[in-house]
Amino acid sequence: MEEQDVVSVHVENRIAWVNFARPAKRNAMSPTLNRRMMEVLDELEYRDDVGVLVLGGEGTSWSAGMDLKEYFRETEALGLRGVRKSQAESYGWFRRLRWYHKPTIAMVNGWCFGGGFGPLFACDLAICADEAQFGLSEINWGILPGGGVTKVVVDLLPMRDAMWLTLTGDLIDGKAAATMRLVNESVPLDQLKTRTTQVAEMLLKKNPVALKFAKDAVRRVGTMTYDEAEDYLVRMQEAANFHDKSEGRKEGIRQFIDEKSYKPGLGSYDLSKAKTSA
User: Fold this and answer.
1) Would you say 117 and 132 are in contact if contact means Cβ atoms under 8 Å apart?
2) If you classify domain 3-204 with CATH, what class do you get?
3) How are strands ordered across the β-sheet holding 133-135?
4) d(CA 19, CA 27)
5) What pLDDT, in 10s, does the model give residues 78-116?
6) How many CA atoms lie less than 13 Å away from 41 in the CB half-sphere?
7) Each residue of 38-88: pLDDT tens digit?
8) Is the per-residue pLDDT at 277 higher than 50?
9) What are the CA-CA distances from residue 132 to residues 89, 175, 195 (Å)?
10) What residue spans define the domains of the chain?
């Protein structure tokens, strides 16, 4: 299979729809797919026609995790060098996605198992189908959830829920995942793309520089003391003001005070009135 065939990309109305495209393998992540995902992220990150990235899966699965044959058995046959290379390729694009320049949404249509929790956590927001299935299957074949997966569930879930999924390998559906806060929302499968599009369009109305600095701040301040976070956020706002060539902060204040054209508690200011694009 050609590398470009394992990931599909479609850009429409400033939304990049990126799909794992190995439906016959339940979109399991192989070394080939991991390499291609890094290329796709590179290609899309600074395109002017892309404002939001949605990560989905073709067929009936989002991702069944790492490909046991290609990622584990075949890679391990190459020795430590092969193992470390494959780990770097997978962890590399997960990390890249966590700090992506554009906001990202995981659109989970079906199975999300094991290593699939890596890109799930890496996306800023996550919306799933009620029919989706989530689980940490590693314990069922004799290993612990590695590759950052244990860290993911501990960060996202209460300890009892994290421990249950880790030790039992039990599956939960989309509604349970939303209740646990593993995802933001769960909707019926036939409404999944519509709801994801609505959320993406909402993000497209926000100041893109503010979005980037805000999402990075959420990921960073959790490990800081209050005083450290306070100082960090002051510096980040100053940096955002510097990098925002549209002067969005001033424009937002102007439209609120002078034009009285919007209320910040109810919606965003009109980006089209800014003096330049960010």
Assistant:
1) no
2) alpha beta
3) 61-63, 111-113, 133-135, 172-173
4) 9
5) 677 666 776 777 789 999 999 999 999 999 999 999 999
6) 26
7) 999 999 999 999 999 999 999 999 999 988 776 666 667 667 766 677 677
8) no
9) 27, 9, 15
10) 3-204, 208-273
